[in-house]
Amino acid sequence: MINKKFLIKKNTEFKKMSDQIKITCSGCSLLCDDIIIIKHEKDIEKILGTCLKGKEKFNQIISKNRILNPLIRKNNSLEKINWDIALDKAVQMINNSIKPVLYGLSNISCEAQLNAIKIARKINGFIDSNSTICQGQVLNFASKIGITTMTLTDIINKSDVIILWGVNVVESIPRLLSKILFSRGKFRITGREIKSLIIVDIYKTASFNVLGTRDLALIIKPDNDIELIRFLKKYCREEYKIPAGGNSGIDKQDLERLISILLNSEHISILTGQALIKPQGEGHPMKELLELIKILNKYKKIGRVSLMMVGGHYNMVGFEHIALAETGKNQSIQFRNGKSVQTEETIISKLQNQDFDLSIIVGTDPISHFPAAISKNLSSKPMILIDNKKSGTYLIADLILPTAITGIECEGLAFRLDHVPIKLKKIIDPPNNILSDAKLLENILMKLE
Amino acid sequence: MELFQYLPQTNCKKCGKLTCMAFSLELLKGNVNIEECTPLLDESKYQNKYSKLKELLKGEEGQKRELKIGIDIVKCDGCGICVTICPVNARYCYSILSGKVADYPPDKHQLFMVKEGKCELLSIENCRRLVTEGKERECRVCETYCPRVAIKIEYI
Known about the structure:
A: 449 residues; alpha/beta; Rossmann fold; Dimethylsulfoxide Reductase, domain 2; nine-stranded mixed sheet; five-stranded parallel sheet; 16 helices; 19 strands; 35% helix; B: 156 residues; Alpha-Beta Plaits; 2 domains; two-stranded antiparallel ribbon; elongated
């Protein structure tokens, strides 16, 4: 009797919640897979659980900045054209060029990235992604030294120390700290009480507000990260006294605490951002940090030290994996006669030397991000833009092809920041029957053949 | 906390409470008068503290006050730290334990929820400051760990 009552109650509840969908957000590289959406017929009614960054992605559907028709530039003004004419024009522009360049590719699905690499192989072009000037450099060093990584689930369940080195997580990826630091894991049941946080930065960012009494805040002098890492390496290798004046702007007391935490805790995960990517003096801080992690892991009896790169674009890691599988190189790939050849060049050196005659930009905005001299070179040659919203590059491009938003209007595969592949879902139909990135690039490839 | 500094801090138990901290919390809520703390009146060394306490409360002692948790919607960016860290939320919604979004419709005990990119206060009835198991709780986790300094706990 009791069982029957329970069953009836459960069924009615299920009917009420039938229009609930769980989706994956494609706002940033964290790819939160627990967002709840409540649909009313064909429209989205409520979005639960996203941060402001993810909410902004959903606002783009009906935004004023959305591009809905293919456009062509004639006499310094944009004109609407037919899809067939637009595709023909794109193929004609590609066929006329000898040294085309493809750039961007971090804000599209893996299927689209594969098609873009196929196009580059077909037209003997040069292809590069945003990771060249971002976290891709870390993987270049890792191929020589080696890297220890952890997935997000590992960090939630196991890690007891989290180090933020040169990254302001609160402002760049808002939900990351609530997932890894404040949650309660399998072996860290008390959550925030047992996990400690260390922040290394050159000034007080918004992330410093999260610090508790057991945590450590280190404010160091600018461009002195490399000195601190070298000091820690020296200390771990042999008996070494801490200087009375401290090191690189940190006093002796804090250094002692930092060393005791590094040597005595179990699982340490280090999150790094853009700060350690540029070279400091003669050396490179990222290279030194990877060596420090190697030494610490040799010393530790229980647990390990791991590194996680915090990037912004939602599928930057995906390009590295797809390109590595397809060509044997993770970035800056030059094709000749249908084969990838060895080059030292990157997208920056290509643009600096004006060694190109056509640029195809996919899902990014280089005109407003690159230095003025380089973006001037980029704007001097013909350009095809494939994107879903207006940007600085939109004002200069000669041919503009709109696409649907991946994760909302079309499906696809993307890689999270800890190298875990996640499927993105389709929720609503795109306006004006716009094609997805993957389909559009496939159509161009078919026409080229 | 400011009120606690001006009390004797000896835990003499003459007021009937276990500690001076508990007395200061009752004083904040308006459940007791200052005069119930007899050492403040009798001993001459506490005279300064007594006058300062009177100044702080401005004669409003004894009036009952209500707890208010204010959320600044302009500053909030929906990071969900308050949802995850609140002990009451985590006790009743299993998915919040691992930092995930809670089920919808929310549990009746739930305090915070993130909706349309902003944090929302659902109900205050089950807050740890009000519902206690025989002991006073000076819980301020949502206020201390908010990275945007958007949450404020006060008695009005």
